[in-house]
Predict the structure.
Amino acid sequence: MKIHQISLFLENKPGHLNAICRTLAEAKINIVTLSLADTQQFGIVRLIVEEWQKAKEVLEKAGYVVNVREVVAAAVADKPGGMAEVLDIIGKAGVNIEYMYAFAFRHGSEAVLVFRFDNADRAIEALKASGRDVFDAVTLFNQTK
Amino acid sequence: MALYEYAHDLDTPVHPVSAPDYMPAEQLRALQLHRLQGLVRRVYDNVPLTRKRMDERGVRPEHIKTLKDIALLPFMMKTDLRDEYPFGLFASPMNDIVRFHCSSGTTGKPIVIGNTGNDILVWQNGCMRALAMCGVRSSDVMQVAYGYGLFTGGLGLHYGGEGLGCAVLPISGGNTDRQLMLMQDMGVTVIACTPSYFLHLIDEGMKKGIDFKKEMKLKHGVFGAEPWTEGMRDKIESLTGITAHDIYGLTEISGPGVANDCQYRRGLHVFEDHFYPEIVDPDTLEPLPDGERGELVFTTLTRTGTPMLRYRTRDLSRIHTGPCPCGRTIRAIERISARSDDMLIIRGVNVFPSQIEAGLMSVDSVLPHYHIIVGRDGDLDTLEIKVEVTQETFSDDIKTLERLRQRISQAVQRIINISAKITLAEPHTLPRSEGKIKRVTDLRKNV
């Protein structure tokens, strides 16, 4: 039930993010969602793409250091309290969220979020037990088409 | 130095070319004195600048009666070579000169060194003995990726390798793709280049997915021409599985092959039957006894083209005392980790780039791709160290990267005692070098 996220190191300088996106564009890889974590000095780009192996390969060829991590994509009700409800489930399961960001698309009336948990398996179990949708790669990328 | 002499010595543990390394001390001193006396006479008779300085001190060549009397003689410096540019310090007529080498100065004109045929043979002998000390033998395939030309690195190691009967690949510097391809295809066993260029080769090789330990036949690396640290040696060896050797030399004294480290790594043995080392106090210029640290000074006992009398190298070192387990009687100098010329004064503190490198290397999985930037903010000197992120050090988690920055900063501060701003840089973005690397940008000089 986990999906692959690739991340790259980025200096905070004009044009650097563009160069990454251009490399992917030339390889005809669509970025499903992207999140940028930054400090004053540097940033980390996190990307969800369908063909993550290919993306890793072209980016590495272009000289980037690429990290692959497993993350969880889960549905959250798009209404007041929706997020709190999910965080309750996670909190009760004793799982810590390292970071999270949202997908650009919706799943019916719900928003889809990307989570990086310290214990993904336990989080998935808890979310499913509470009836939340957790997506595998195939279902997730079908949503985007 | 004919090769047939060594035809049967393919895998001998002690190569016959190394014989002078083991000369008994008493005989070695006698030889050095004899050569010194001849050298002083030659320089006094042929080099007006030295004659003038000796006359001013009331010193005549016949006053050199023991090796200690070398202290009576005036020093030579890089500025002398610049002032007497191009031929003022030549002690042989142009008829006897067969080759020039130049070394770039920090300003304007280069310095020019003239070599006679014999000088080239002496130089080759030093390089052969250095390579033999590394364990290089005639069955080796040696890639010389030092620059060929006015710089002495390429031709020096080339002559050394050919002298031992190696198969030499004179590829010179640059064209990294071709270097890697030929290294792999030709089963190269010895690489000679600057340590920073070898790191660049490793880096590019890894990008292509080459496993140096499995896909290369490399056994030895002969690295020199720039100061490097034990930490970098450890990184190179653990990444590639080769044995990394430190070779020392400078154009003014001949080129590479003045000194080299043996397998015990207790400093670099100086081929002192040709290159006589002294350590002097850099301020008072008084000779210091063996074991004490100071500026390294060389006298080229056998050179005839542009011989150097007590040439101040600006390198800081000391002469080791006590015997080396390898059995060599020629003395060893401490690994050159600092050149006086490289010293930075930051907030009143003396800092050598090699100290910063030692700090960086003490942090796990940090690779030595770094650049030091010294600047000024108002009245305060600033120190920034850019370090490239690698596959091992990169994490998708900000906290981990910030912790890495902190660890580097603490490791550096522990050694140099001043705080530095650590900036993480994208991989392959810091300057690489195909010759001598420039690790420091001092913005204060432009103000």
Observations:
- Chain B has a mean pLDDT of 92.
- The first strand of chain B starts at residue 97 and ends at 103.
